[in-house]
């Protein structure tokens, strides 16, 4: 297996095609990338902006160049010596009539060849939740009719421009007479004869008959655990791997599969041992992927949380928390808030999935004879508490029950539930435990297996939607912590935690990715790096937020349900604006100001709906949304110059300290254990907001121009603020990774201790093997140094600060790979010496 030395993620669509990606190969090669990491390339719904809504898993999307364009890109990659990793989507496909398999299922129901390809409950009609109201109401309103489908020549139920095919038996012998049907009762009878039932999107949470991806009805679960379904959905993927065009696969949402381990074992068998395989998997605190999965590791969300330990000022976090609680008006109990979010999901958003589990449990209970009959209410209460208490995405039980490690996890969860303040009837909880571990009567073992699978496929979406897509938008103490792979729950941050995480990664997943930005992160890596600095100056930030509140008081609307924005949302708006504010920005440039306003307003609208407090996606509060988005626009309106001037001046030291954080974060990613993943454009600066903002195409022309300069420039103010310094450091380290791959893949990870006056402002470690050694020294927590007009600070600031070297690193000569200087060190490295040219040191042993 050829393990990448560094990957570069490209988002296809939105203007990015195979030919355009091929043109970037010389740039990626100069940057030091070993593998292009491509977003999904298979045919997706018309106009798809991401490609995860696949309509044909065995066709390369013509919209981005088709098979011919793909092969041209592959030839360009091979000519440049680069490999290719594909993002594939085994868990779901588009529930769209553009999907020929889904269309066949809609038309023919359970008789379709593809009826078992999708995860559908065939004990009832297939539900299609795409109407604006109930079928009866839209029919009465005249919104449903019978029309001829011009593509097939056959009659269909027409709802506006969507034509749902009629099953042939429902109009056989009627010829074209069925088209003359205008009688609403006749249309209703015809609808009743279909294998599907059109219904309101509002009824989806309770009545959906198929497994969806999270809450998205337009994405239907695929039963890839079935061998024939695996074959049908992986034909082209395997052809590309076996043909040498694809070197690796990234598995999207592996936790959605019925049997992740079984799927990965089949995939490994089919691809062979040389294919690099990673999985998208969000890990909880202290969690690891199962050791017996035949993969190289995860896509690296957990790396973001690990790096936050370096860049968060843990000693001042409580001050920031107390200030935020004053803004909210009361102390915030995050554990209670998470429980409330999960209960909302269990009782509303995923009510149908929970009802299915309850139905299965009661069917099993009828056969069990170990105890008296359990009341359905008791079982529901136990199921609800078990789902809410689950601390990780899922366990990995199979038909045989739960693996040993997962039994341990379940045991802890059960203890938490039993001893908690909301403990359900214990006999009902014990009953569910037996189902999950497989201790049931043989006659119901099959149903218990289905329950176990469904339970495991539900806990992940519950966690994701409760944490990432609700709680992260409700509580805003420090937005940088509200990131995929992290938790906004109180925890201690420390360098020790970071070093421990890196030592564990080297031991368990040395070939896994390390990411700092992805297409799914809540904000760009440099926005996050800047917002970390708020933890270093909580009083200053709180004073500024209070001042801005007074400046913009006239923008606040008084609504019947309260002020808009309310104080916590206002606090969020200032943080989000601070994160997206360009490093070099003239707030007097009206064109740039308007562009920023549009991006910011779009983010605010999404953030309000995701919070699900005063508005949401299913029941929007237009007055509230208009008021808050109006406030956000008002912050950036040309007439609000006083605020913008104050905001810009206040932000300056945060910007400068954030640029240092950005560089430290980058250096760590490129030298610590794991394979560094560069998200498109993030070799420069990326201050984007959540998607779709973070999927905008970067300025590749400028990036290529910068990199054409062969030498690193001096550490000037412009180099920092433009992102050029970050790009050049990235290129230097990526090239080193190619020259010494064993050092970074297998070399020891050695935490180094800083001593002296500014010891707390340094993170240091080394990578070492029998041949090479690299000492990495980078700054942290430097906000107090930057009440100046520059992100630079002289070497004299680092006087009386050293990094101690262990015996294997001491008394050797080292070359600073950025400054080009060679130095000899004894048992310590003096920072005032190595920080003379750049405020970091990358020292390679000679």
TrEMBL record:
The record places domain Glycosyl hydrolase family 13 catalytic at: 12-384
Q: Name the EC number(s).
A: 5.4.99.15
Name a Pfam family for this protein.
Answer: Alpha-amylase
Q: Which UniProt keywords apply?
A: Isomerase
Superkingdom classification of source: Bacteria
UniProt keyword Isomerase present: yes
**Is Isomerase among this UniProt entry's keywords?**
yes
Q: What is this protein called?
A: Malto-oligosyltrehalose synthase
- The species this protein was found in: Neorhizobium phenanthreniclasticum
């Amino acid at each position: 297996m050829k393990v990448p030395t560094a990957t570069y993620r490209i988002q296809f669509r939105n203007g990015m095609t195979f030919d355009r990606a091929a043109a970037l190969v010389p740039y990626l090669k100069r940057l030091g990338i070993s593998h292009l990491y491509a977003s999904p390339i298979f045919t997706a719904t018309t106009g798809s902006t991401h490609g995860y809504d696949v309509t044909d898993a065995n066709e390369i999307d013509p919209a981005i160049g088709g098979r011919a364009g793909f092969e041209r890109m592959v030839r360009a990659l091979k000519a440049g010596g680069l490999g290719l990793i594909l993002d594939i989507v085994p868990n779901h496909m588009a529930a769209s009539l553009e999907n020929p398999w889904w269309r066949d299922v809609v038309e023919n129901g359970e008789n379709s060849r593809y009826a078992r390809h999708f995860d559908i409950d065939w004990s009832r009609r297939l539900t299609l939740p795409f109407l604006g109201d109930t079928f009866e109401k839209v029919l009465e309103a005249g919104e449903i009719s019978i029309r001829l489908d011009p593509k097939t020549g056959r009659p269909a139920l027409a709802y506006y421009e969507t034509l749902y095919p009629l099953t042939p038996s429902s109009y056989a012998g009627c010829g074209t007479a069925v088209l003359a049907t205008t009688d609403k009762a006749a249309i209703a009878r015809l609808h009743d004869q279909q294998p599907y039932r059109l219904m309101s999107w509002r009824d989806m949470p309770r009545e959906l008959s198929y497994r969806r991806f999270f809450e998205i009805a337009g994405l239907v679960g695929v039963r890839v655990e079935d061998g024939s379904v695996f074959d049908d959905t992986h034909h082209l993927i395997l052809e590309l791997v076996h043909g040498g065009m694809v070197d690796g696969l990234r598995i999207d949402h592996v936790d959605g599969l019925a049997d992740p381990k079984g799927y990965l074992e089949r995939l490994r068998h089919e691809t062979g041992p040389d294919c690099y395989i990673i999985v998208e998997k969000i890990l909880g605190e202290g969690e690891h992927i199962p050791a017996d999965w035949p993969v190289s590791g995860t896509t690296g969300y957990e790396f973001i949380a690990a790096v936050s330990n370096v860049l968060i000022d843990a000693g001042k976090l409580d001050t920031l928390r107390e200030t935020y609680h004053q803004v909210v008006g009361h102390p915030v109990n995050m554990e209670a808030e998470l429980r409330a979010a999960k209960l909302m999901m269990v009782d509303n958003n995923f009510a149908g999935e929970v009802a299915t589990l309850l139905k299965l449990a009661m069917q099993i209970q009828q056969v069990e004879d170990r105890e008296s009959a359990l009341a359905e209410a008791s079982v529901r209460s136990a199921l609800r508490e078990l789902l809410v208490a689950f601390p990780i995405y899922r366990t990995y039980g199979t038909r045989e029950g739960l693996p040993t490690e997962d039994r341990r996890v379940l045991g802890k969860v059960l203890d938490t539930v039993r001893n908690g303040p909301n403990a359900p009837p214990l006999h009902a909880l014990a009953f569910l435990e037996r189902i999950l571990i497989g201790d049931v009567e043989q006659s119901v073992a099959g149903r218990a297996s289905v329950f176990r699978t469904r339970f495991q496929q539900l806990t992940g979406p519950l966690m994701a939607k409760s944490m990432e897509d609700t709680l992260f938008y409700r509580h805003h103490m420090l937005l940088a912590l509200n990131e995929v792979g992290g938790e906004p729950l109180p925890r201690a941050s420390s360098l020790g935690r970071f070093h421990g995480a890196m030592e564990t990664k080297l031991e368990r997943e040395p070939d896994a990715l390390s990411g700092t930005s992805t297409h799914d992160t809540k904000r760009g890596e440099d926005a996050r790096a800047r917002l970390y600095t708020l933890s270093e100056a909580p009083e200053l930030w709180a004073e500024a937020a209070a001042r801005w509140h007074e400046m913009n008081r006239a923008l606040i609307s008084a609504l019947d349900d309260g002020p808009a924005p309310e104080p916590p949302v206002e606090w969020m708006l200032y943080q989000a604006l601070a994160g997206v504010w360009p490093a070099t920005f003239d707030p007097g440039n009206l064109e740039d100001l308007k562009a920023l306003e549009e991006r910011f307003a779009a983010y605010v609208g999404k953030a309000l709906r995701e919070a699900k407090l005063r508005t949401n996606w299913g029941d929007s509060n237009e007055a509230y949304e208009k008021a808050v988005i109006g406030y956000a626009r008002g912050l950036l309106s040309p007439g609000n110059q006083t605020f913008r001037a104050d905001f810009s001046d206040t932000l300056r030291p945060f910007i400068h300290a954030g640029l240092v954080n950005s560089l430290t974060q980058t250096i760590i990613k490129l030298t610590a254990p794991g394979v560094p993943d560069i998200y498109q454009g993030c070799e420069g600066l990326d201050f984007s907001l959540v998607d779709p903002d973070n999927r905008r195409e970067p300025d590749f022309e400028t990036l290529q121009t910068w990199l054409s300069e062969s030498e690193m420039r001096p550490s000037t103010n412009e180099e920092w603020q433009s992102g050029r310094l970050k790009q050049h450091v990235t290129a230097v380290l990526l090239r080193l990774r190619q020259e010494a791959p064993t050092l970074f893949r297998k070399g020891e990870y050695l935490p180094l201790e800083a001593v002296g006056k500014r010891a707390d402002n340094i993170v240091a470690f080394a990578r070492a093997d029998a041949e090479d050694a690299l000492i990495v020294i980078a700054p942290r927590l430097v906000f107090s140094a930057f009440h100046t007009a520059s992100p630079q600070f002289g070497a004299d600031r680092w006087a009386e600060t050293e990094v101690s070297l262990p015996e294997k690193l001491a008394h050797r000569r080292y070359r600073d790979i950025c400054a080009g200087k060679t130095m000899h060190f004894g048992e310590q490295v003096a920072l005032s010496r190595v920080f003379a040219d750049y405020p970091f040191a990358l020292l390679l042993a000679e």
